[in-house]
Amino acid sequence: MRFVEKLQNASRKNNSLVCVGLDTDPQKIPKHLLREEDPTLAFNQKIIDSTSDLVCAYKPNMAFYEAQGSRGWESLRKTCSYIPKEIPIIIDAKRGDIGNTARMYAKAIFEELKGDAVTVSPYMGEDAVSPFLEYEDKCAFVLCLTSNKGANDFQLSEVEGKPFYEIVAEKVLSWNAKGNCGLVVGATHPEQLKRIRQIAPSLPFLIPGIGAQAGDVESTVKFGTDENREMAVINSSRGILYASDQEDFDGAARQEALRLRDKINLHRGR
Amino acid sequence: MRFVEKLQNASRKNNSLVCVGLDTDPQKIPKHLLREEDPTLAFNQKIIDSTSDLVCAYKPNMAFYEAQGSRGWESLRKTCSYIPKEIPIIIDAKRGDIGNTARMYAKAIFEELKGDAVTVSPYMGEDAVSPFLEYEDKCAFVLCLTSNKGANDFQLSEVEGKPFYEIVAEKVLSWNAKGNCGLVVGATHPEQLKRIRQIAPSLPFLIPGIGAQAGDVESTVKFGTDENREMAVINSSRGILYASDQEDFDGAARQEALRLRDKINLHRGR
What we know:
2 copies of one chain form a homodimer. Helix content of chain A is 45%, strand content 16%.
């Protein structure tokens, strides 16, 4: 099944655009879990159990697992295999390297971890992205306009009369022959989000930056979705994962995911 | 000890600007090594043993280890700890993400793997790079102009009257308060290499693209080094690692590293 179809199915079944970002930090998880053999995995399993009927995707963030070395890699692999088969896994990796190296990253992410999608950086151009696109049923979300302050350093610069992020969006469209590209567009730039949606009306958008980074939900839904109010994957990580540091953290995470889903759906009219 | 000092010491001791890129692919290593418990590690150890008096640095490429999952991560960690203490390790990772995530990548690379330097992508701007720069004795080589075809897609675009890679070089200079930034500049663009060296006269440059990618050695040395004909880390991966697929692969790798070192030194006048 193609990625956009898998995403649409999960999103419709759970009536949700919420993606839970699994940025799992052993220093932030409830203390009682540290007794478990693999606290990171135990935490993720509880979060998945309590939210899998409320989300359209999960997004594990590679950095948090790599910081724990090979043990972290195992926690990540087991987390991915624990996620219900019908829910897409977006591996947040922001990789970007020359062809023979990108092929190895694609193998790591799509074959070793069995992710459904990956985030990639556009800086090195088409041949750094195309090895990911050779996997027809997977998806590469290319960084377009990110939610952080540093987005101002280059992404908003003017290139040939247009903002750089627009050039990126246009290039990505031209790489989308197999229909397996997406864009990362931060919720902290509503006006630009609107413009990028005009450029790429039907691409899936991965939208970070609500929650801890204070992006606005209403404009994110209004400008980030496609004409059917779909194809926006709206991520929240810290706000859901660490809603409570007590034993009931999974219940608190569920409440937070539910609250966000409903808030988003209010602006989708459903 | 600061990174540039460590690099200079290794480079002077071995009279070398050669960096061996450890892009170790189990499919390409000599067949007899597949009997070893950890073929990747066994291969790397032989390569290191046979070249460590000829190089200024080693550059393991994360992708090749990640493609082997947690086992690959262990091979990488053990490879890093096997490299002689006085030789800098540049972890080629091309990471770039928001602050709290970049901090986790920095932890993975500088603490878990004990790398001395890392390659990072500039696309997400200063706050995606600064967590790496908080480690004063480490170094972040920021992608400026890469050696692949895709460099044409964005890096050579004109931004505010200048090529984009120049804007990146200038920004990186402004991030260099602690003296721990470097630039990645491909050997396949000699004219631009010259220009970037003018912008950043004393920064260490990591220069890929000779060998398999056909960059020219003479112009790389002439334009890529600083005023003392130093501070260029000239990488070769495949050309050295896979000089032979027979039992004498380490001897062949040594010959190739020696040949490259001497060819480079010819143009340094030493």
